[in-house]
Amino acid sequence: MGLDGSVFLPGAKRLAAAHTLFLVDLPGNGHSPDGNRDDWSFAGFADAVDRFVRKRRLEDWTLLGHSFGGYVAMQHMVDFPGSASRVIASCTDCDQEPAPGAPKDPFAGMPEDVAASVRAAFDREAEVETVDDCRRVWLDQMPFFVGALERVETLRAAFADVAYRVDVMRESERDWGELHALAALRASDVPVLAIAGACDRAQPPANARRIAEAAPRGELAVLEGAGHFPFAEDPEAYWGTLRDWLA
After folding, report:
1. Do 85 and 99 have their domain in common?
2. Domain count along the chain
3. Residue 70 belongs to what domain range?
4. Which of 128, 143, 170 is the last residue of a domain?
5. Which residues of 142-166 are buried (b: 16+ CB within 10 A; e: fewer)?
6. pLDDT tens digits along 47-65
7. Domain check: are 141 and 50 in the same one?
């Protein structure tokens, strides 16, 4: 939320030899116009994805949603069943209710001074006024999202130049609608890959496991040592897993 498709670069280019890639910025995010702000919701964003697909007459296509984008991908399965030929649920979840086995305290095991700094950064989200404010908030949150603290600067470097958007980030606490995609997953016959970082505090592996178990053609991939942004933290493992699954 508040970012643009460049977060997937340069790693996503590893798929470009065999696949045409679209890095889609949701309304109000990245380089996309705001659109109707009343449509800033899981359902509204899922509809924007569907319009993107229909405009380009895409066939036999794969939908990858990461984190908040994964919520949108799950909502897309609810609202447009069978549209995507394959779905990749990346470090995300599929329902409002916590997944069985998910940790109750996402900060457990984090040094207290680091946790305090990260909590303060989350609290500043609703107060951002400039792009630089957004960047500082995100970079200050990175210890929460990284798999191991010694790699935090690697993650910060990957997020230094993305297209931050102030308004949607300030709306982080808005009501995005309720997400209930388990029934859609169970009814779907499309292949679903649920990918998780083993050390992801934001979206623990229990979430991905629930997605993979719900989908009749679901598969689970857990990347050891990785946090919430494995495509930046461990690109070889992340993009290699996607490449092999798509093949």
Report:
1. yes
2. 2
3. 5-105+175-246
4. 170
5. bbbbbbeeebbeebbebbeebbbbb
6. 999 999 999 999 999 999 9
7. no
Q: Within this chain, do residues 42 and 139 fall inside the same structural domain, yes or no?
A: no
pLDDT at 173: 83
Residue 127: exposure state from Cβ atoms within 10 A (0-12, 13-18, ≥19): exposed
0.85 surpassed by pTM: yes
92-130 pLDDT, tens per residue? 999 999 999 999 999 999 999 999 999 999 999 999 999
Q: What's the burial of 133, exposed, middle or buried (CB within 10 Å: 0-12/13-18/19+)?
A: middle
Q: Give yes or no: residues 149 and 239 share one domain.
A: no
Find the length of the chain: 247
**Residues 183, 86 share a domain:** yes
Distance CA 103, CA 204 (A): 8
In angstroms, the CA 85 to CA 223 distance is 24
Pair (191, 158) in one structural domain: no
Helix axes 131-145, 112-123, angle to 10 degrees: 150
